[in-house]
Amino acid sequence: GKFDIRVNSIHPGLIDTDMMRELPWFKAGKLDRVLKTIPLGRPASSDEVAQLALFLATDESSYCTGGEFIVDGGIHC
């Protein structure tokens, strides 16, 4: 805004991490069922989410403010 401060938020969906592998449904072998709910058919990598954060931190996104960036493989489409 007028103070040259931009505020955006990143809303990740399922991310392929060690923590994801500790979730009860993952341990119960239900990953395929969960992945079927994601149009892209896979969880995001942490790098994919980080790339969005890096973009939002650069001048290339200077006109982006007040945005809610959903990174969920299309679940909320």
Shape: elongated
What is the strand tally?
2
Mean pLDDT: 94
Uncertain runs with pLDDT below 50, 5 residues or more? none
Strand order of the largest sheet: 1-2
Number of domains: 1
Q: Structural class of the helix and strand makeup? A: alpha+beta
State the share of residues found in helices, binned by percent.
Answer: 25-40%
Round the Cα radius of gyration to an integer and report it: 15 Å
Query: How many helices?
Result: 3
Explain the overall architecture:
With 77 residues, the chain is of the alpha+beta class. The protein has one domain. It is 26% helix and 10% strand. It contains three helices and two strands. A two-stranded parallel ribbon has the order 1-2. The longest helix has 11 residues. The chain is elongated and about 50 Å long. The model has no long low-confidence stretch (mean pLDDT 94).
